[in-house]
Specification:
The chain has helices spanning 10-21, 32-39, 69-73, 86-89, 94-98, 115-119, 169-181, 192-211, 217-221, 228-240, 250-256, 259-272, 277-287, 289-307, 309-321; strands spanning 2-6, 25-29, 42-46, 58-60, 64-66, 79-82, 105-108, 128-131, 136-140, 151-155, 162-166, 186-188. The chain is an alpha/beta fold.
Length: 323
């Protein structure tokens, strides 16, 4: 099986390593300025394979590196994974790229409410498998960590397999088989977009609140802003429920979106996760900060001024925090 991954960052490397472990022939499509580094291979650290992962570097190599559309078109691909942010996805390159893929299955990993619709401008729905990322990955070392060599560290939470859905059963099963062969936790979901769009909304408000509190879980847990996360989320839920069925899951509404539950989660997460989760949030979401703002703007556009007043306040607060 020949698989192409667009982007060789912290997400693409994890998918690439495990697809290769499952027997796939893996290549990366990257910008020319990153090609030389990629051809040298990657150092990785797998928290699920070693309790002290940062003392056990792994080498990931033996893959192809492509930088031009002509190189992409010269190979018949079975699957292509889009391992970039939502904003990068919309940077004007996608149409020309998709035209080079022949009949390949395209795996979209972007969680935005309009990402699938954007993708379907260029490709038929039956060729698309939608997914979300159920693992944490970051560039090591983060502050406070020590490693022999810089690389990507990652962790698969036991409770969070990456979900995938697709209208064409054979293509969806092909993606799941390839990932499971490489021991990457994944699952079939009826509709990934419907299943993740509400959770993504809550995450965006948590991320915004953390950024405004210097990425400190303890500061946020003591902040009045914590009580506004449910209010902003419920505004967006009301808007999303007009498009997506079913509406927001009850476990999210009744259990998670309560100040005491959010406060407990902020207390518990650093005690369960094997790396510094505060530093992870800072490193990851500062890197894709334009994506957070994009999602807030999409919620505003979908709801209008009167339906999403709290969301407008959050966007304004985010911009103030960023100066």
């Amino acid at each position: 099986m020949k698989i192409l991954l667009v982007g060789a960052g912290a997400v693409g490397q994890v998918f690439g390593r495990h697809l290769q472990k499952g027997g796939a022939e893996v290549s990366f499509y990257v910008r020319e300025k990153y090609a030389e580094e990629a051809r040298g291979g990657f150092t990785m650290y797998a928290w699920n394979e070693h309790r002290d992962a940062l003392k056990h570097p792994l080498r990931f190599e033996g893959f192809g590196v492509l930088t031009t559309l002509e190189e992409v078109a010269s190979t018949t691909w079975d699957q292509v994974y889009l391992c970039v942010s939502s904003t990068a996805l919309r940077a004007g390159w996608l149409g020309d790229f998709v035209a080079q893929l022949g009949a390949a299955t395209l795996v979209c990993l972007q969680p935005g409410m309009h990402d699938k619709a954007y993708l379907l401008q260029y490709i038929s729905e039956e060729r698309v498998v939608m997914g979300t990322i159920g693992f944490n990955s970051y560039y090591a070392p983060m502050p406070g960590e020590e490693v022999e060599e810089e690389g990507v560290a990652y962790w698969f939470p036991f409770f969070s397999p990456s979900p995938f859905s697709g209208s064409e059963r054979v293509r969806l099963q092909g993606v799941l088989r390839a990932l499971r062969a490489g021991k990457l936790p994944c699952m079939k979901m009826r509709d990934v977009v419907e299943g993740s769009v509400y959770i993504s909304a809550v995450l965006m408000f948590v991320v915004t609140a953390l950024e405004c509190h210097e990425w400190s879980f303890s500061k946020l847990s003591k902040s009045p802003l914590l009580r506004d996360i449910p209010k902003a989320s419920f505004e967006v839920f009301a808007v999303l429920s007009k498009t997506y069925r079913p509406p927001a899951p009850l476990w999210l509404v009744k259990l998670v979106l309560r100040p005491f539950a959010l406060r407990f989660g902020l207390w518990l997460a650093p005690r369960l996760i094997p790396f510094d989760i505060e530093q992870f949030f800072r490193a990851h979401f500062e890197k894709v900060g334009d994506q957070t703002e994009l999602y807030l703007l999409e919620y505003l556009d979908a709801g209008g001024e009167h339906q999403t007043k709290t969301v407008a306040d959050w966007l304004s607060r985010l911009r103030q925090c960023r100066g």
